[in-house]
Amino acid sequence: MAKLLMAMSGGIDSTVAALLLQKEGYEVIAATMSLLPEGRAKTCSNKEDLELAAKISKDLGLDHRFIDLQEAFTDQVIAPFVEAYEAGFTPNPCIECNRLMKFAALYKIREDLGCDYIASGHYARISYDEERGRYRLLKAVDQEKDQSYVLYNLNQEQLAHTLFPLGKYTKEEVRQIAKEAGLVNYNRKESQDICFIPDGDYVRFLKEFTGKTYRPGNFVDREGKVLGRHEGIVQYTIGQRRGLGLAHNKRLFVIAILPERNEIVLGEAEDLLTSGLVADRLKLIITKEELSEKPEVTVRTRYQQKEQAACVSRLENDRLELRFREKQKSPAPGQALVLYHGDEVLGGGRIIRVLRD
User: pLDDT tens, 246-269?
Assistant: First the structure.
């Protein structure tokens, strides 16, 4: 009997995933990550969630482990999140949590426990390409719930030892499975926020976490003319229009953040259009040679965003430059750029620059 380590959050998705794998004959060990100390912030691994995960694991007859990752989560996810905002980026901590907590820390624990696989309740699919001799990461059947965007960092070794049992189901089917099984969390509401900032007020979180008061500075136009004062660069992101506190005869948007000068550049809607992007920290699931052979790919720069056609114009070291077929609204530097070919995830990276030409 194959043994696996199940990332058990206490939510409906991880619970149904564990149930399905158990029914398939796997020996399932449930692992719940404790990410933040009590009192720092309400998180996805707070006391209530920990207790629910333990109860559900007991109901399913699973061996259940609490995994203390508080220090690692603070150092590897929260601290870089804060640093990114201070550098004028808009980070995506969910991607880093998946990369460093679920598929690095838990993956190592899987090995220590002698498990064959790690599993989670992500909506994505994995298949093996016999012809090319490698694993493929694919979108979920339920396009509305597809989570492949946050999983592009997975490498061949991890894909070979990972299971996503929900990838072939819709969310409604998962709820029905949970209801029919009498699971206590079948109608539990899902959180849509960053788990360690449940109220969505990331500025408050940054101030509380760092103890800093962020310095005001100037709003400027593209020519450098001062338009007014901002309240600290961490409070703004590319494309933002509301909350600027400026009276102007035109609709203005944040089009650039310049931390070295403590300035926010404002412009009109057309100033947000970009012809291409540059990304660093490139991670590919396919090979660079295979990517170079694809004349056109599709690109997602936000979670569940409609993909846009583009071509890779440069690929070197850990950087990638691409050009869109048609100009797009500029994403925020710091967000992930994920490459697709049909349903297959090719890889991705972190956006560091937008191209206006």
Answer: 888 889 999 999 999 999 999 999
Q: How many angstroms separate the CA atoms of 175 and 125, rounded?
A: 19
Please say if 195 is a catalytic residue: yes
Cβ neighbours, 10 Å, residue 268:
13
Catalytic residue among 44, 94, 97, 115: 97
* Marked catalytic residue, from 44, 94, 195, 311: 195
Q: Which domains, ranges and CATH numbers included, belong to the chain?
A: 3-180 (3.40.50.620), 214-267 (2.30.30), 273-355 (2.40.30.10)
Q: Is 355 helix (H, G, I), strand (E, B) or coil?
A: strand
pTM above 0.90, yes or no: yes
Asked if residue 336 lies in contact with residue 95, where contact means CB atoms within 8 angstroms, the answer is yes
| CA–CA separation, 94 and 83 (whole Å) | 15
CB within 8 Å of 231: residues ≥ 6 apart: 214, 216, 245
Residue 178 burial by Cβ neighbours in a 10 Å radius (0-12, 13-18, 19+) = buried
**What mean pLDDT do residues 96-106 have?**
94
Distances (CA, A) of 25 to 2, 18, 20: 8, 11, 9
pLDDT for res 352: 96
Determine whether 97 is an active site residue. yes
Q: Could you tell me the sign of the dihedral formed by the alpha carbons of 330, 295, 289, 314, in that order?
A: negative
Let me know if 116 is exposed, middle or buried by CB neighbors in 10 A (0-12, 13-18, 19+): middle
> Quick one: DSSP state of residue 211?
-
Q: 310: number of CA atoms within 13 Å, CB side? A: 27
Contact 266/333 with Cβ under 8 angstroms?
A: no
Token code pair at residue 197: 């900032």
Specify whether the CB–CB gap between 312 and 296 falls below 8 A. no
Q: pLDDT per residue over 44-98, tens digit each?
A: 446 777 888 899 999 999 999 999 999 999 999 999 999 999 999 999 999 999 9
* Mean pLDDT to the nearest integer, 135-139: 98
CA distance 1 to 286: 31
DSSP 8-state symbol, 293: T
